[in-house]
Amino acid sequence: MTVKIEGHCDAAFLAVRDAFAANFEVDREIGASCSVVIDGRTIVDIWGGYTDDSRTTPWSQDTIVNLMSVAKGFDSIVMQKLFDRGLLEIDAPVAKYWPEFAQAGKSGVTVRHVLSHTSGLEVVREPMWPGAIYDWNAFVGALERQAPSHEPGTFRAYHPMTVGHLTGELVRRVTGKSYGRILRETIGAPFGIDFQVGLSRPELARCARFTPGPGYDDPQYAPSPLNDLLVASRAQFDAERDDAFNSEQYRMSEIPSANGHGNGRSIAKFYGKLALNDEAIVTKEALQRICEVQWEGVEAVLSHDIRMGLGVRRNCVDVYMGPNETAWGHSGAGGSLGYVDPEAKLGFGYAMNLMRPTRNNGPRPRRLIDALYSCL
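Above: the chain sequence. Below: its structure as tokens.
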């Protein structure tokens, strides 16, 4: 399908634009945006396609979309900023800041365990009602009551949803403000980064609609002893009304691990600043700390082969970020991706609304990344 590609692409990087167009031709992309910032300069900022599968409303310059777990990269930087300010300590018990968390044998769970996905709280196991995840106090209360599934620090299990409520409650405890507000005040507003968790009503109008593609929900893409429990935990969303993560309730709630909304430009701008070691956003010490490998190998929830930093993923088998090993960032379910490559001094952002199976990132971001590095 031929679509009109809009935006700017430097002449030396036209291969990226061609790869972006190929995603529509080959992989039937509905709508998407891609941006690349190198050495502080935006060299690619393109978009195209449509905001939903009716293909009637064009994707515009300011269209935003749910980026799923790309949000975890932003969440991790928010936490690093709190470490820099001395409000949190990486190896302190979570209960130091959140006393109720110590219930059910969790007094030894540290902030590092949370960020490295080894806290033993990979899902909420307590039966809850549809839509419970939107009730912050109820979801946090369930985490307070829950015992770890394993000795903290010993079990590598990706925390798809719970990590955001764990970090978000820590943010609330030490700042007195919600995570979404802190994100806006410390990253969004100061740096003009159009990325938010918890949209206001006026912003709903510029959201692209998520569409699950063929095979997206096929269990073969997440074989795991915990997969049944993960599937069961989806009942904590209001599946009937959520309409594949498109409901107003989903978009306006705060789920720091999963419902950040932005576009390729906002992701690349964020990671582009990190590529420059811009201490206005976070210290150099924090950047060293965040990408230290905590563990590597196959984790127990989605059976992804990853290298885990402090809340972010290092370049690895199942999150491809180009040829340089030092790259790090986070992918999102369905295909979105954001990362920084410190060696190339670049930030990369890709956002789309057609959800496809994403082991090894899937072909769409990989095609863009390979084209990008062919131009360097």
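Residues 14-27 form the longest helix (14 residues).
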